[in-house]
Write a structure and sequence with these properties.
Elements (H helix, E strand, L loop, with lengths): L17 E3 L2 E3 L4 E2 L7 E4 L2 E9 L2 E7 L5
Antiparallel strand pairs: 1-2, 3-5, 4-5, 5-6
Length: about 70
């Protein structure tokens, strides 16, 4: 309409873009090692981190563990 088309189209070469079989992903989920678990305590409750992603952490309660 009233805007101009870009004459110099940006290249598809994105140095931060990763390709996987299912397509591009910009968010990842990482899991903790069973040999070196990540644990934290809130009040009297202890938790173990299962996974970490852009949306937050997945945790599970740990029974019998205190810091």
């Amino acid at each position: 309409m009233f805007w101009k088309k870009k004459k110099n189209k940006p290249s598809d070469q994105d140095p931060f873009k990763l390709e996987f079989e299912e397509g591009p992903r910009y968010y990842f989920r990482v899991t903790t090692s069973p040999q070196k678990p990540v644990r934290f305590q809130v009040g009297q409750r202890s938790y173990q981190v299962e996974d970490i992603s852009a949306g937050g952490t997945g945790t599970s309660p740990v029974i019998g563990f205190s810091m």
